[in-house]
Write a structure and sequence with these properties.
Distance between the termini: 78 Å
Low-confidence stretches: 703-708
Strand content: 5-15%
Mean pLDDT: 93
Number of helices: 25
Largest sheet: 5 strands, antiparallel
Number of strands: 19
Shape: elongated
Length: 708
């Protein structure tokens, strides 16, 4: 059966079999990401899982592998191939093809157990392995390698049929393996497993005490296996506030009509509107007809487990509709059960594509279809072989997408690029920034990330299912490398972060003027070496010019010793001193160069340092150019003028969720400290979450308490 599934998969994914070492299925987005993850997993496995979670992307963030599915459930099988071939594209494609055998083989065993028939089980295997859902998810190998779940259900059925502990242990292990393949299944997989357990207990009435002890023991073992990974994802979630917005969850929930839609890449659906990959859930006409035979005939309804798998299908369908179910665009007036689960189940709001629960619908329908096939074969008394072949051909035809789209992948086609990355590979370790950043160019970002395989350094660039705020700051319009007027400050920021190399792809810029300005700024005292390789230039950055606070120790100035005024939003000034890092003062309008904040002190003080606290939601709201002035007895004096981006980078290293901007000031006798924002933005505000002033000298404050 497995060999037959592989042969059909090779045909159904043609012409991929002709380009296994050079092309990826679908596109150069998620397949590149997943090929890179499988390579990184193999590297970590070979090194005893050392630094597994610190994948070489999104420097200086930690545990960046947990920004996506870790794919260990696939990598444990593909790692030897990585070590043997050193070809991540080939390994990914072999896993892609093998996923058909995994999915089909798992359902074959499950359906054969339920029906006792090989012919019916073979049809169920084809329904599950060649559904429209799989075509829609060609880019997501973790959603194709889904055979562990039906195998887990098979083992659970066997446990209740035999009472043998080894089957329950196998069921738990297979569930863990499916969770290791795609994190969603830690939640989704519990639905059919719980349904099978409840149905089998009701049907067979096993000894409750023994069964409970077995289940608890296996649950504990599964929990112990999943706990280290869950801990890392929980930590990353808390540190980065990785949660899906209600809008994302709603947008990627299914509509009832989605179960009557196939992807437009399927030949039979070629005239359908362009597919999104998340709303093409048609399980197939053969599956629906055969499942209908099961549910509409007396013999079908009395077949064992019909109620069980019908319940799983119906429940999964309802849950896949998300928090607010809809049908043909008409939204229900009351929330669905998934909304309740969102409110009470920890971490469920980290799942975005609720519609993927449609896979469980297909799984349950494939079992029901197998039961319907048995009824049909026995009633019509037809020769089973030809009928199975005919129905199997129709099932495969329903998802026929040949020729499947493939994308040629050569991450370094240019000779100059190859020389540049070889130079980096032989250079001392240090983080790399590749420019242009091009955050809206998924393929370019994926390639930058993939090339860590070649040069061996961490990169500030990256792409995953979660993009942290720092790359958005570095690449955003009117920010950092998207702001041609402040490129020098942006380079200072990445130096402060600890970057050692900047790779400039001169042919990659949309604006020749931006490229020229960037090269000029890099050569303006911020680098120690330049190496040209055709149109690719590798700059070695100078170290960070971290200032020292001359003048000895300092201490914070009490809030009651300061009185604040501002040009904008004076009603929000108290938020600068409320001790709450999540509240903020903001200009409530784009930066025009006329914003100011004035801090009047209770007398002349030697203000050594000014600290502005920011937060992730305000990264883009830094002052484009800041002037700090002191009103002294002798008159007005400028203490600082320039960009705060390098100081932001130093604060980011300390706390990436709430970075502070520390500005060291020369000795002064300030009675008033004035902050003037003199830069201009197209739309972004100026905001500060907390503001502190520090005075040189040893000793306490002259007064204490809350700010006015």
């Amino acid at each position: 059966m497995l060999a037959g599934l592989v042969v059909i998969a090779l045909i159904a994914t043609f012409p991929l079999v002709l380009h296994l070492t050079t092309c990826l299925p679908n596109d150069l987005g998620d397949p590149v990401l997943n090929a890179w993850i499988l390579w990184w997993d193999a590297t970590a496995i070979r090194n005893g899982f050392h630094n597994l979670w610190d994948a070489p992307t999104y420097f200086p963030y930690a545990h960046t592998l947990a920004y996506s599915d870790h794919l260990l459930g696939i990598a444990v099988f593909t790692a030897p191939l990585q070590w043997l071939t050193a070809n991540p594209v080939l390994v990914y494609n072999l896993a892609f093809i093998a996923s058909y055998a995994s999915a089909g083989g798992g359902v074959y065993l499950l359906a054969r157990l339920v029906t006792g028939r090989r012919d019916a089980a073979a049809l169920a295997a084809l329904i599950y392995a060649f559904s429209a859902f799989r075509v829609a998810h060609f880019a997501h190998v973790q959603w194709l390698m889904t055979g562990w779940l039906p195998l887990s259900l098979w083992a659970l059925h066997r446990y209740f049929a035999t009472g043998a502990w080894r089957y329950l242990l196998a069921s738990g292990g297979l569930y863990v393996l499916q969770c290791f393949t795609a994190n969603y299944f830690a939640y989704f997989g519990l639905l059919p497993l719980a349904a099978v357990a409840i149905a089998e207990v009701w049907r067979r009435r096993p000894p409750l005490r023994r069964t409970a002890l077995h289940v608890i023991a296996v649950a504990v073992l599964a929990g112990l296996a999943l706990a280290p990974i869950a801990h890392v994802y929980y930590r990353v979630r808390q540190e980065n506030n990785f949660r899906r917005t209600p809008d994302e969850i709603e947008r990627l929930s299914a509509d009832v009509s989605d179960y009557l839609r196939g992807h437009n890449r399927i030949w039979l659906w070629r005239h359908a509107r362009r597919g999104t990959g998340e709303h093409e859930l048609f399980p197939g006409a053969v599956a629906l007809v055969l499942a209908g035979v099961t549910l509409s005939t007396r013999r079908g309804r009395t077949t064992p487990y019909v109620g069980l798998y019908a319940t799983v299908a119906a429940t999964a369908l309802v849950l896949s509709l998300g928090p607010h179910p809809s049908a043909w665009g008409h939204r229900a007036t009351i929330p669905g059960p998934y909304k309740l689960l969102l409110d009470i189940v920890p971490g469920l709001d980290g799942l975005r594509a609720v519609s993927r629960m449609g896979l469980l619908v297909t799984l349950a329908l494939s079992v029901l279809a197998a039961q319907g096939a048995v009824v049909l074969f026995d009633r019509l008394r037809l020769a089973r072989g030809p009928v199975v072949v005919l129905l199997g051909a129709i099932i495969v035809a329903e998802s026929w997408a040949v020729p499947v789209r493939t994308a040629f992948f050569d991450p370094i086609p240019d000779a100059g690029d190859r020389s540049a990355y070889e130079f980096l590979r032989q250079s001392p370790a240090g983080p790399v920034l590749e420019l242009p950043f091009a955050s809206d160019d998924e393929a370019r970002q994926m390639t930058y990330q993939y090339l860590t395989l070649v040069h061996g350094h961490r990169t500030i660039n990256g792409h995953s299912s979660y993009d942290p705020p720092l790359p958005r700051l570095l690449s955003g319009r009117d920010q950092c490398f998207g702001d041609s007027n402040h490129l020098g400050a942006a380079i200072g920021l990445v130096r402060a972060l600890g970057a050692r190399y900047v790779v400039v792809h001169r042919d990659g810029f949309d604006s020749p003027a931006l490229e020229a300005a960037l090269i000029e700024e890099l050569e303006n005292g911020q680098t120690v070496a330049r190496n040209d390789f055709g149109r690719t230039v590798v700059f070695t950055l100078a170290g960070d010019d971290r200032p020292t606070d001359e003048g000895g120790p300092s201490h914070p100035i009490a809030r009651t010793a300061m009185h604040a005024r501002s040009s904008h939003a004076p009603d929000r000034l108290s938020l600068l001193f409320d001790g709450n890092r999540d509240s903020r003062w903001l200009s409530a309008g784009r930066q025009t160069g006329r914003e100011w904040i004035e801090i009047e002190l209770d007398g002349p003080r030697d203000v050594a340092r000014l600290r502005m606290q920011t937060a992730e939601r305000s990264f883009g709201d830094y002052p484009r150019e800041l002037v700090i002035e002191a009103v002294e007895p002798e008159g007005l004096r400028t203490l600082f003028r320039g960009s705060v981006l390098p100081q932001f980078g130093r604060g980011f290293i300390v706390d990436h969720a709430y970075p502070f901007i520390d500005l060291v000031l020369p000795p002064n006798r300030a009675g008033v400290i004035r902050l003037r924002q003199v830069g201009v933005t197209d739309e972004l505000f100026w905001s500060i979450h907390e503001l502190e002033l520090w005075e040189r000298g040893v000793g306490g404050n002259r007064s204490t308490g809350a700010a006015p």
